[in-house]
Design goal:
Structural class: alpha+beta
Largest sheet: 14 strands, antiparallel
Radius of gyration: 34 Å
Distance between the termini: 38 Å
Oligomer: single chain
Number of helices: 32
Length: 842
Amino acid sequence: MAFERDLQPTAAIRGHLQFTHGGLVTANYFINPLGYGLRKASDKFDVKAAHHSLINNLPNGSLLLGIQARLNTLDVLSKMVEGVDLDECEDYATEVVASFERVRAILPQTRIYLLSIPVGASNSGISALSRMWRGTTTTIDAAALSRADLDAYDEKANEILSRIGGDFDPVPVPAALFQWLWEHYLSRGAVGDPVAPTRAGVLDDATSAVFRSAALDEGAQADSNRRIRPSFVPVIKVVQPDLVFQPSYQAVLTPRSFPYAGMSFPGGSEFLSVLEGMQDVTVDWGMRISTKPAEQVLKNNELSLRRLGEQMDQRDQEVSFAQNTLMSKAQMLGEYNQHFEVNGGESEVSFTTVIAIGGASRDATTDAVNTLKRRYRRFNVEMTAPVGAQVDLWSMLIPGSPARRAYDDFAHIVPSDMWAGFVPFTTSQIGDDSGPVIGVNLLSGNFEPIHFGIMEAALHDLSASFAVTGELGSGKSYFLKLMAVLVHDMGGQFLAIDRSQVGEWEHFASSIDNAVVIDLANPTVSLDPLRLFDPRIAGERALDSILPLLDLSPTSGAGAAASNLLSPRGIAEHSIRSLLDFLQVVRRLRDTPGLGEDYADLAARLGTVVDRVPVLFDPKLRPLRLDAAATVVRSHNLALPTAEELTTPHLYNRLPLTKRLGTALYELVGVAAREAFLTDNGRFGLLVGDEAHHFTQTQVGSAVTSDFSRDGRKHLAAIGLASHDPATDFQGAAHNLIPNRFVFRQRDETLARNSLEWLGVDLEEASFLLQILREETSPPVGQGRQVPEERRGEMFMRDALNRIGRGKVLGPARADRAEAISSTPSGKGATRSALPQRQEIA
């Protein structure tokens, strides 16, 4: 076992430019992976097209990397507080502090994607003879490199990136990344594995002195009791003598063969996705590529065909299977040649793939290797861990590493469009780049925190509105309360309409200082639109509520009479300041001779409701003012129509008066929230409605939903809706303009199908998701059919970028907040703070 420092080729680093001992110069970039996950096949073909452009424009010797690393807990917390003044938001500061232990216990990981491209050679100032005499430890004086030299390398790199296009948004890496990458390779999967550098940082300089020494013991000879015969186990034991950490046991896999019949896309070619969701180990991958243009491939094919013809002539009289084999090869070569003749923009890709597995023990690494081999059999890909080539293949993941024989021994050749089907630079990430952590990602297998920057979205000119669907008890209300409390804690305000008989929102509001709770059946405030709104719009708002309530058309006699009185001119002429004033004016005009029967009809209709709804006609009640941080409007005693009654004309026309009253009051609350929140008051406002069809199926409610969806981003406002059936309740603006969508458990097949289609999933392509939603999302199990605490809150999510994934809602990290938003006020209730279980991703 010897110290292996020569495996690190870096001599000097200037920002993202690497200068190796061999004279190679590479430019290195962070790559922004493209959203993949559960998106439609048409979107996935767009991702493949981006990879096709990438591979056709990369220079030979380019290195693609996917590095799995632990997330820095402090980085996660810093993203949670972006844009939030913690001095003004003490409750949110407490939540962030409480999140520290939970995030650290989850051990979230991420995958960092890197691209290393050769951009030239650096031989000036150091002759070949000098390098020979001074050996591989020759260092390059970074200070001696002129600005012109660096600019030339940058210009070459920018030229390559320009040809690739901007799909992957490459960002230059800092010099510190090279040191981190080396230390990660040496500690892969062990205790000392450093956390991921999630931010690009500042470009700086470094030299080879920053890289640690280590011993790479291929076959783990030091652990073997054999003194004469060496071990031939394909395992590398990596020991760092300068550190007290335990060694890392690593193994390197590479594909021996791919399916003879090819790999279908999408679904059958994304072989690198198999690496996610491994337990107790860290798995990195690297791919070294070189390409040949179609013209050169066609020439080579002609030479190969000529040689096959010569072989067939030589063995013409031979009685064997060789002739059939040669004919088969000739046929395959013909098809291969035709592919390049038909597709002029194609190239031939030679690629070597290395998968490095690291763990804290030899057994953990060996188990992971066997697990990966089993997984790859599903793709008909045979993986091998070549004995004797482990260290050579291990070194391929180091940017700037010189070519070794093993790279060519395990290379594969495919057309570039087939290589593009591997789509290596993809992600299952969902959520936003910053904001409060609402849960963890289950689809990626890395448990990355899901950030939902509901307040930041409005600042970035994006819609922050969201909608939720799921069956009873699946977690809809819990999630709505989670978002409401987060908005409150970050300095915003919310209004929630509580339809529950037990008053779950009232129970929740009791934990918030100075929260206002309003019962529409026993009112303490007035919703009289003539007293509630600005005089310029008060009349129109009153008409929107009164006419449907009284079953009047605006063009009918009584309807026209009401419209005239509630016009700005009529209000001023008759001094109408409230609905009670309006009723008194109508009665006075009814008794005035010569004005006809219209006012009599209007007065009679008003008389049927005046005593039933004091919240509209009692002048002693103070008008509702939405200046509290938290307002809960209880509507549990109101009779409200069903979704079918709202959408079926003949049923709507026969609605009883009690349900018309309930609908009018429900709409007024939404209108009041719209007028209060959709103003530039500098404070974020969230309207929460758990009965979505009352907002989306009526004319007034639909307008409220549309206004929040369209204009909320302009006025720091959003709407959050929940429903059981999105096919009927989330239509219009609620379907097209609300980007953030969440689907919790739905065991009914029809509702589950509607929910996934609303999410954007094509069930003809991914029918298996229907079963996952119905049976494997927070499944009730065991005696009493209870959901295990660690499985609660599982859901599907579509974020503002239309990425679809699967996650788990965690709930507040603060114990008091988690208890307050429990769905059952009379009981203790379980919280959603239980840590998720790691699940194998097929």
